[in-house]
Amino acid sequence: MNSNIRYKGYEVAPAAQLLPNGLFAANLTIEKTSASQGQAYSFDALDYFFDEEHALAYAFRWGRMWIDSRK
């Protein structure tokens, strides 16, 4: 289950990847929505969770904090 969210001029795409051990890895892609910038950042396995929704929520929160720290 993946969904993109716009936040302060960025497209935040959290993703939860099911691993063979049954845990979900919290992954994240952040891309500047400005056409002139177009720079994307990808973060894999920020942390691991037993629940897919927790992994997605964590990745989105982490992305918001990353964006807020850059401004």
From TrEMBL:
UniProt-recorded name of the protein: Transcriptional regulator
Domain of life: Bacteria
